[in-house]
Amino acid sequence: MLTDNRYGKAENRVVRFYKENARHEIRDVNVTTTLRGDFEAAYTEGDQRQVLPTDTQKNTAFAFAKKVGLDTVEDYAIALARHFHETVEPVSSARVDVESYGWQRVSINGAEHDHTWVRQGPEVRTVAVTAADAGTWLIGGIKDLVLLKSTGSEFADFLVDEYTTLAPTNDRVLATSLDVHWRFGEIDGIDWDEVFAGIRATLLELFATTYSRALQQTLYAMGSAVLERFPVLAEIRLSAPNKHHFDYDLDRFDIENKGEVFWAADRPYGSIHATLQRADAPDAGTAWSA
Amino acid sequence: MLTDNRYGKAENRVVRFYKENARHEIRDVNVTTTLRGDFEAAYTEGDQRQVLPTDTQKNTAFAFAKKVGLDTVEDYAIALARHFHETVEPVSSARVDVESYGWQRVSINGAEHDHTWVRQGPEVRTVAVTAADAGTWLIGGIKDLVLLKSTGSEFADFLVDEYTTLAPTNDRVLATSLDVHWRFGEIDGIDWDEVFAGIRATLLELFATTYSRALQQTLYAMGSAVLERFPVLAEIRLSAPNKHHFDYDLDRFDIENKGEVFWAADRPYGSIHATLQRADAPDAGTAWSA
Amino acid sequence: MLTDNRYGKAENRVVRFYKENARHEIRDVNVTTTLRGDFEAAYTEGDQRQVLPTDTQKNTAFAFAKKVGLDTVEDYAIALARHFHETVEPVSSARVDVESYGWQRVSINGAEHDHTWVRQGPEVRTVAVTAADAGTWLIGGIKDLVLLKSTGSEFADFLVDEYTTLAPTNDRVLATSLDVHWRFGEIDGIDWDEVFAGIRATLLELFATTYSRALQQTLYAMGSAVLERFPVLAEIRLSAPNKHHFDYDLDRFDIENKGEVFWAADRPYGSIHATLQRADAPDAGTAWSA
Amino acid sequence: MLTDNRYGKAENRVVRFYKENARHEIRDVNVTTTLRGDFEAAYTEGDQRQVLPTDTQKNTAFAFAKKVGLDTVEDYAIALARHFHETVEPVSSARVDVESYGWQRVSINGAEHDHTWVRQGPEVRTVAVTAADAGTWLIGGIKDLVLLKSTGSEFADFLVDEYTTLAPTNDRVLATSLDVHWRFGEIDGIDWDEVFAGIRATLLELFATTYSRALQQTLYAMGSAVLERFPVLAEIRLSAPNKHHFDYDLDRFDIENKGEVFWAADRPYGSIHATLQRADAPDAGTAWSA
């Protein structure tokens, strides 16, 4: 009757510094570990003998920040997931999710400071590694990447039914907060930071340069350009709220508003999703099972 | 290359009153609609001719609050999902998610007021309906149900490795914020409110009365009691953070703390999940595909 | 040049149980301590010799949960504030803010369980105590008390200028999330729980029974009734967003909407504030200085 | 008995574009308006004849985004506050609060895009203008400016009492999320953007370069440098949580942790406040009355 189960420690807020010389480095991450395996007795009989405490998982996440290091979050996550999978007997599959927060070195009169940073955001870099008997999967990503363009977007010629009142528009604001996750087809010999930077730049470029007849089209353009430019990727998933900006009617006050003044609404919002996969993509296994 | 896509309107905040007589009724819900189907041209070519605007979906969600009514959120969600599936040609599958917020009638000297309420929470009742060619699925649920017990919980005899430092305990606080979702095996002739009340009562009862050797065991006890008492259910999924309460060390101040004073921590937290399914459960189809 | 300063420890999440017999009691609070006094050298010279660490304040907040107890949050807050003021030499004034979260005992077939609770909300009970040379002030309160009435509210006959487009209405939804704080004129011999329950009931009653020509009027009616019924209070401050509910236009779909279907908007919202004070109220001193 | 009152429209999410040429400009702000004046009859009698609807205030906030423009948020806020004060008869004092969100132009192969931006944060620029009979006050500010330094901070030699258990440290992480607000002594002829950039740079510089014996000392150093470098300011107020980073004990696993691995805690946190004022500062009037 118990058909699936998993458990772990969520949101370990690990901060790691490198202090080999006066110019320090910072890594600021949020680590969640999740184990699957032979834990049924804990559920059905309260028998913990196979259960590695979530407190131990926490200790391990912090210990690996030093032992393995956080030079890249990807290598850290791979090492941590494989540790649980390979050394904890009942574990059949271990997943490690990492969110990585950006910090910019403080500049003083143009000179970067050695050990002081200011937080960047709201965008967050993510990685999810699954280590299982069948292999290791890695999904990179970015979330809360908020983008807006003030023109180059329309929405018209859509399906109409009895509840349709929307007027078509040939020039609107397009704004979204992107969550994008990409699955690597292989994980050896990757320059993680270079690939991440390249994908982020591609997402921004395509959002900016695609003349958008719908957010769907923009997502597809971003996703297919990423897959095209980065053959190491097997699949990409994009989620994007359509953050509506409504023209504010100023005619009522004899003020002209030629696409200049908008109300940025909260709810409801459109919600668009797309998954693109290479035709010859290797199997995803349980890579996407949160 | 486009292997999956969906779109819709998220978080329509619909409030519906019944005012047939002086004693009004309130329904306060958050409605999200999601459509799957033949929308590929919108992604690949920006062709919207098959795309029903999300603005239309919003209008429909509000219109159905009157046309169908919100006597129960379940019947409303079924009607709305089937409307999209049956009347919008390119739609192959429509999903409607509803969160329902609780309001308690204000009492004045013991008498309930006719048209004034105070909001209850944090718990939220949920329903997710999927209408597709193969049939209609309904998943009921409750989220943010925060429970705590001050005794009757232990955690000991667990697996130990080189990173384990946790001391076993034979009396601890057990606290969680439950998200539970249950799939109905059939959806005709159900008294939705009665079943919901019964499941909620069962969850509370089993949390209280199960002597817990781990949160895993408590989840399993809750889930199996629900399936046992409600044969109309096919499956139940439980997610539960372990909201840690740590004994505060008062010995340092010569003050005795016999399980009386705790620090309620935020992060990290344990995270436990279980899925229980009846052996003869009908197929879930795409019921769980958010 | 340093004209004001204060420091403290914010959001100590203290949970206290009473376990004298099988029927346990729970107190779940969030404690913030703030000290004012002779701390200038810490700012101007980095000299900490007068500074009691915020870590010590945390320890004290937890220790007092046992030593003084949390029978009422008011007596706990008074004791803690006076402790800092009276025993820590440089402190001229100590403030203790407590938020108290509600828990309801779980019922099983009508019988209350001894040691299991379900969290209530969103409303939160508050207390703020200031202990200074001139005396001790106590401000009670409630926040996030969300109220709604489906009729008995209008808004018309208002001032009109060139930017006014609002149509008057003689029947609307009135909804708010109240933050109300009341200052006691004296603090000895008060039955804190009884007074709190009475004030809460008065707020609900007046919100329900006042025919509202504006949220301003409703706030005033609530505030003056509280001051009238509770002579022990010197002053009351009410803050209330006007949580707008807009009629959804269903005429477009040939559906009648007679005040039945509304869209509950997020932002912007009205924001109304009122302070009422008894004519002979004692001086507030620094009671309101957060 | 009604001793204070105010009302307004909160959180108008105004977005303004400049499209005079192909290279567009964006202003993304959150505007709150608050009026004080002769509104007593609305409270005591429900008489709205003196009350300008909050809906009108909303319309005005959007209209002024075009009419006055948002070249700088400061000039916009001054114009809007003065409009309410000067043209709405019962208004004795009008306050306009603006939060301004940062957007960075998207770069494609080093070239800035004309009409696409990516959101920057979490820091937010603020302005609060009060227009009253006695004059106009302006308070500039920045909030959610998250800073961290990995060394150059200690905390020792502090006051000790019976509840003190903290060990002194001579090298710790110092992290905070600054809210800083500065009052201008005059408001004519100011280059708002230049002053803002200068103050922000000063705050960052002093946080980085001050060897910190306490967060109090750092705040004072920042505040006094700002007042010194910007004679146009009369006063500055700084609020700063001490976002604790605790050394993670890795000795237990035979791993050395020389100030490299920390746990970033959520709650409780220290909370430090300082107000610095020039000796000859003009009166603040009601500038700080939210």
Order of secondary-structure elements of chain A: EEHHHEEEEHHEEEE
Quaternary: homotetramer
Question: How many DSSP E strands of chain A?
Answer: 10
Strand order of the largest sheet of chain A: 1-2-3-4-5-6-7-10
Percent in helix of chain A: 10-25%
Could you tell me which chain pair has the largest interface and how many residues each side has?
A: A-B, 74 and 74 residues
Q: Specify the biggest β-sheet of chain A.
A: 8 strands, antiparallel
CATH superfamily of the largest domain in chain A: Urate Oxidase
Keywords (chains A, B, C, D): Oxidoreductase, Purine metabolism
GO molecular function (chains A, B, C, D): urate oxidase activity
Active site (chains A, B, C, D): 9 (charge relay system), 54 (charge relay system), 244 (charge relay system)
Protein name (chains A, B, C, D): Uricase
Features:
Urate Oxidase, 290 residues, two-stranded antiparallel ribbon, globular, alpha+beta, 23% helix, 5 helices, 2 domains, homotetramer, 10 strands, 8-stranded antiparallel beta sheet
Structural features, described:
Four copies of one chain form a homotetramer. Chain A is an alpha+beta fold and 290 residues long. Chain A folds into two domains: 1-129, Urate Oxidase (Roll), CATH 3.10.270.10; 134-290, Urate Oxidase (Roll). Chain A is built from five helices and ten strands; from the N terminus they run E-E-H-H-H-E-E-E-E-H-H-E-E-E-E. The first copy, chain A, has helices spanning 40-44, 54-67, 73-87, 192-209, 215-229; strands at residues 2-18, 25-37, 91-108, 111-132, 135-149, 174-184, 233-242, 245-247, 261-264, 269-277. In chain A, the strands form two sheets. An eight-stranded antiparallel beta sheet of chain A has the order 1-2-3-4-5-6-7-10. Chain A has a two-stranded antiparallel sheet with strand order 8-9. In chain A, a hairpin with a 6-residue loop joins strand 1 and strand 2 (25-37). In chain A, helix 4 runs antiparallel to helix 5. The radius of gyration of chain A is 23 Å and the shape is globular. The mean pLDDT of chain A is 97. Chain A binds chain C through residues 162-163, 165, 252-253, 266-267, and chain C through 162-163, 165, 252-253, 266-267.
